[in-house]
Amino acid sequence: MTTEEHVVLVDPEGRALGTAPKSAVHRQDTPLHLAFSSYVFDHDGRVLLTRRAAHKVTWPGVWTNSCCGHPLPGEPVDQAVLRRLSYELGLVADHADLMLPTFSYRAVMGNGIVEHELCPVYRVTVDAPVLPNPDEVGEVRWMPWKEFADGVRSGLLAISPWCREQVPLLMELGADPLGWASATDERLPQAARA
Questions:
Q1: Active site includes 67?
Q2: What is the tens place of the pLDDT at every residue in 63-87?
Q3: Is 163 labeled as catalytic in the residue annotation?
Q4: CATH code for 6-180?
Q5: From CA 125, how far away is CA 122, in angstroms rounded?
């Protein structure tokens, strides 16, 4: 018997309010909940892009950053990043660097389904083959960071709404993604500090 995955509900200040089944939170009145985004880079500074599987509830078939997900209640967010990278992309990494500790967004799909997340952003560096899980990922693509970031900022690249908001903030950290200074966990919202 499998247990349904739960997400952590949060208030606008980033304090935990409780949990809810993941399957129940993505709807037209999606409550603010804890999530994460991650950007995987190789040692040449290329970023790994993923196309969301066509059967996903939110933004099916849309290109986005490397991996997104939700920490389990009580799970450190950086550990959730590593868990999901392994599950979705077959990537094993020893750590995830916190880049944007307080990022949050709200986006509405054409069918009215809302994504509403407090979503710290992480960088992970790997040099390993990617093994996409078809339950989660339709395609993968490596792209030089500058080419990707310029394409997102100019609007020439169609990308998920959260990624479109994150890229300009990441660009403020510097031109070289491998040289970005990481933030400390103390800067995370309270609910994200397991």
A1: no
A2: 999 999 999 999 999 999 999 999 9
A3: no
A4: 3.90.79.10
A5: 10
